[in-house]
Amino acid sequence: MNVNVHDVLRQAILFSEENMSPHPIIRAIVRPLFAILLSLPALAQQPAPPIPSTGSGGLDQYRASRIAIYTDDFGQLARYRQANAALAPPAAGESRVIFLGDSITDYWKLPDYFPRKPYINRGIDGQTTPEMVVRFRQDVIDLHPKVVVVLAGTNDIAGVTGRTSNQDIEANYASMAELARVHRIRVVFASVLPVHNYTPDAEESFALRPRDRILALNKWLKNYCARNGFVYLDYFSAVVDERGMLRRALADDGLHPTDAGYKIMASLAEQAIRKALAENRAE
């Protein structure tokens, strides 16, 4: 038997109105509530509103493919939940380091660049800083590292999870730093990498990441680290070319480092981690 919920609600409302208190105040309160109930089935049948366009077809398609993530697990806590549960606590004297970030970190095979180091990769492709704030406790604090290396911001600038100002990105950095400090985790903030448009595959990534915003965010990061006793990891200066873009040999798609790029980054990251650990021992 097919039951029309709308008809059932209507009959219930009619019955209630017939048996409703005659007091005018009660009727004035109850009738609008009935009207709302009557409208609920129709509202439920309305199609979901479209995702706002970013003006970039490729980015719009990418955002649409991630709707389940944005609505069901915004921080993607499920990505590393089992791996975290299986991870043993740091051994006595171990200087565990968490690399937190987006695809640039996610694709970085840390054991190849830091052999025999207790460095743990917690990068997730496509993530922005608000998502990292959501998972900061699970993927950083609860793993008890001595140092966290954060490389983020490029996807925020591109608008992957919506239009975001530099001020909003800075606030998310500050939130992560404050959480880390409370738990005595040393913070290394890496600069946002430059991008290039030397190849066809790089054009969209380049267009979505204006150089002036990258420069402004890096300037803020450097000053914020200096003011608060954190370590600033300057990848940008080591990989930028004379045109202010990422050197062609260091990224085929204009965004993600090649092996040559990761080698440069690994050397700089190691220096920053040593500095952070030394400062930790000095406290």
Which features does this protein show?
single chain, 283 residues, alpha/beta, Rossmann fold, five-stranded parallel beta sheet, 15 helices, 5 strands, 8% strand
Descriptive report:
By secondary structure, this protein is α/β, with parallel strands linked by helices. The chain folds into 2 domains: 5-44; 57-282, 3-Layer(aba) Sandwich (Rossmann fold). The protein has helices at 5-18, 24-44, 57-65, 67-72, 78-86, 103-106, 110-113, 129-134, 136-139, 154-158, 166-182, 203-208, 211-228, 236-239, 259-282; strands at residues 97-101, 119-123, 147-151, 186-190, 231-233. A 5-stranded parallel beta sheet has the order 2-1-3-4-5, with helices on both faces. The radius of gyration is 25 Å and the shape is globular. It starts with a helix and ends with a helix.
Largest sheet: 5 strands, parallel
Question: Averaging pLDDT over every residue, what do you get?
Answer: 88
Query: Based on the structure, what is the oligomeric state of the protein chains?
Result: single chain
Q: Topology as H/E string?
A: HHHHHEHHEHHEHHEHHEHH
- Overall number of strands: 5
Q: How many domain modules? A: 2
End-to-end C-alpha gap:
73 Å
